[in-house]
Design brief:
Length: about 110
Amino acid sequence: MSSVVDFLEKLGQDARLRDASPEELERAMAEAQIDEPLRAAILAGDADELRSQLRQHSFMATQMDHTGTQMPSEDNTGTQMPSDNEEEKKDGEDETTEASLKGSKDCSIVA
């Protein structure tokens, strides 16, 4: 695997190799002793197959709201933030709006 990683690093650094014809790339991979399935994936530009051949997987993480976690009472500007158990509602705010805001969650996916 290290020869493949070294070759890909060289490919990214060397403009002549990056812009080389498929035949020149094939010759360079043969000199670097890259296995045939990996060569095919590199020549095809198939990142999924290359990851599969290298036994690498996409990493994914989800950020979720943790219920029961104490939220800060102030935001980073020093403004007082409302707590979840406030009984007072602002003028014009109805239960539908409040329920929809409480039901929303922020999620991020990292690849």
